[in-house]
């Protein structure tokens, strides 16, 4: 069976509440339930943390057993060498996802420390980016 984990980083626990003009009105738990129902044969799980070390720990935990990881590291995308190194250290394919088009935002968001260690990057498609990432992982 395929098992894919979605890992969300800082402030993504506030989806549906924060900056709705950028991130939309739907909260992630509701979206995740609809995503799970779209893939009944897929073991799909979810983890969110506002703490960099917890994200590194989760990547280490699942990085040798999962079929794939969908990772929205939030602002850590642009700052975290530790998360980049954790992605490089595990064999599982990781797809980097961003809800907004980071290239249409502030210049500091245009650089990802994670991207070079990821299978691919999806940005700017709202929450549907998570589905696109899952599709890319289960297509292998």
From TrEMBL:
Instruction: Give the metabolic or biological pathway.
Output: Metabolic intermediate biosynthesis; chorismate biosynthesis; chorismate from D-erythrose 4-phosphate and phosphoenolpyruvate: step 3/7
InterPro entries recorded for this chain?
Answer: DHquinase_II, DHquinase_II_CS, DHquinase_II_sf
Name of the molecule in the record: 3-dehydroquinate dehydratase
Q: Does the keyword Ribonucleoprotein apply?
A: no
Complex and partners: Homododecamer.
The source organism is: Parapedobacter deserti
For this protein, the record's Pfam families field holds: DHquinase_II
Q: Report the EC code(s) recorded for this entry.
A: 4.2.1.10
| Job of this protein | Catalyzes a trans-dehydration via an enolate intermediate.
- UniProt catalytic activity: 3-dehydroquinate = 3-dehydroshikimate + H2O
Q: Which UniProt keywords are given for this protein, alphabetically ordered?
A: Amino-acid biosynthesis, Aromatic amino acid biosynthesis, Lyase
| GO MF entries | 3-dehydroquinate dehydratase activity
Looking at the UniProt record, the site noted as Transition state stabilizer sits at 18
Q: What domain of life is recorded for the organism?
A: Bacteria
Where along this sequence does the record place binding of substrate? Answer: 72, 78, 85, 99-100, 109
Instruction: Give the family this protein belongs to, as stated in its UniProt record.
Output: Belongs to the type-II 3-dehydroquinase family.
């Amino acid at each position: 069976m395929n098992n894919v984990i979605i890992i969300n980083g800082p402030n993504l626990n506030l989806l549906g509440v924060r900056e709705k003009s950028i991130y939309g009105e739907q909260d992630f738990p509701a979206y995740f339930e609809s995503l799970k129902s779209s893939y009944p044969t897929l073991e799909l799980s979810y983890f969110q943390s506002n703490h960099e070390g917890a994200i590194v720990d989760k990547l280490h935990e699942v990085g040798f057993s999962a079929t794939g990881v969908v990772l929205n590291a939030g602002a850590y995308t642009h700052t975290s060498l530790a998360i980049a190194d954790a992605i490089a250290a595990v064999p599982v394919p990781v797809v980097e996802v961003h809800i907004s088009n980071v290239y249409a935002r502030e210049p500091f968001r245009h650089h990802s420390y994670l991207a070079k260690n990821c299978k691919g990057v999806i940005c700017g498609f709202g929450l549907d980016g998570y589905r696109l990432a899952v599709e890319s992982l289960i297509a292998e």
